[in-house]
From TrEMBL:
The gene is rsmA_39. GO terms for molecular function: 16S rRNA (adenine(1518)-N(6)/adenine(1519)-N(6))-dimethyltransferase activity; RNA binding. The keyword Phosphoprotein does not apply. The keyword S-adenosyl-L-methionine applies. Residues 1-159 form the Ribosomal RNA adenine methylase transferase N-terminal domain. This is Ribosomal RNA small subunit methyltransferase A. Its EC number is 2.1.1.182. It comes from bioreactor metagenome. One of its GO terms (cellular component) is cytosol. NCBIfam families: ksgA (TIGR00755).
Length: 233
């Protein structure tokens, strides 16, 4: 089990009681002595001092866990949610992760492609992982109480992507570009993001069986895959 940001270790202790090995990454060096005392009776729990965003996370997992698949967990500060989740996704040794994040971010992350609540990040996340919204955590559960509600989300790595493509780079450019101008049509958003003529994009949209007025948030993975196949040629 990999934990990010153990703090003084309340969750770490619960993990250590259940997992065969726990590695916690803590940025605040002043907490290391406290964690050492808290985890003294759990020799299989180890604390690594460092910034998760600067660590070679894949290398750390190989060093500590070998080839074994790893589960990760974190109670994330809201301002680093997206970067940390991105790093989790890009670290193939992490087979699943459970995080507590801001409720609105959790809802967007789990929004089905083609629904109004999605985003380019939710598409990126769901291309690699299957997210599940587990439950909300209300402000009074914290001290001091934040002004927003949190939620717990679990993400399990997919065996294969939800859509096949020969040009993954273009697929992600399309998904990012589709949300670049949210109030514009897909053709206008992609013309701006990709630097391609609008007429070329309209032709591709029609060829994919989509209306010319479609917006990026209305597309499913299958729609993006179809567009990618048309535009790569």
């Amino acid at each position: 089990m990999l934990e990010i940001g153990p703090g003084v270790g309340p969750l770490t202790v619960e993990l250590a009681r259940r997992a065969g090995k726990v590695v916690s990454v803590e940025l605040d060096r002043s907490l290391l002595p406290v964690l050492g005392e808290t985890l003294a009776e759990y020799p299989h729990a180890e604390v690594v001092s460092g910034d998760v965003m600067k660590l070679d996370l894949g290398g750390l997992l190989r060093e500590k866990f070998g080839d074994r698949p790893v589960m990760a967990c974190a109670n994330l500060p809201y301002n680093i949610t997206t970067p940390v989740l991105t790093k989790f996704v890009e670290t193939e040794g992490i087979r699943q992760f459970t995080v507590m994040i801001q409720r609105e971010v959790a809802q967007r992350s789990c929004a089905a492609p083609g629904s109004s609540g999605g985003s380019s990040f939710s598409l990126f996340l769901q291309y690699y992982m299957e997210p599940e919204y587990l439950f909300p955590v209300t402000p009074e559960k914290f001290y001091p109480a934040p002004k927003v509600t949190s939620a717990v989300v679990r993400c399990i790595r997919r065996e294969k992507p939800p859509v096949e493509t020969e040009d993954e780079e273009l697929l992600f450019r399309l998904m990012r570009g589709a949300f670049a101008l949210r109030r514009k049509t897909l053709a206008n958003s992609l013309a701006s993001a990709l630097g391609r003529p609008k007429e070329e994009l309209l032709a591709a949209i029609r060829a994919a069986g989509l209306p010319e007025t479609v917006r990026g948030e209305q597309l499913t993975f299958a729609d993006f895959g179809a567009l990618c196949g048309i535009l790569k040629d």
